[in-house]
Design a protein that fits this description.
about 90 residues, alpha+beta, four-stranded mixed sheet, 3 helices, 4 strands
Length: about 90
């Protein structure tokens, strides 16, 4: 991950080595825990590779009601930043 001081302060999960299905479960659990902890934003490190895990992550994030918005980090397209819905 690029040494970005703004992303370094955020909670993160690294999905390197996970398959698509395991990544889906981990992302949902991570978002739920972040919601419970009251975090505003988190980072999901999915890597670049063939895009399979990234696609699965974005699919989960689109459907998760605890996710307000998400975007790929412009300095590192192997990371997605997620804004948590605090309601």
């Amino acid at each position: 991950m690029v040494n970005d001081i703004f992303l370094d302060r955020l909670p993160k999960i690294d999905l390197h080595g996970y398959d698509r299905d395991s990544a889906r479960v981990m992302v949902n659990d991570f978002i739920y825990e972040a919601f419970l902890m009251g975090y505003d934003e988190v980072v999901i490190i999915h890597g670049i590779g063939g895009g399979v895990v990234k696609g699965a992550v974005h699919e989960v994030l689109k459907k998760n009601k605890m996710v307000l918005s998400f975007w790929v980090d412009f300095m590192n397209n192997g990371c997605t930043v997620v804004k948590i819905n605090k309601r």
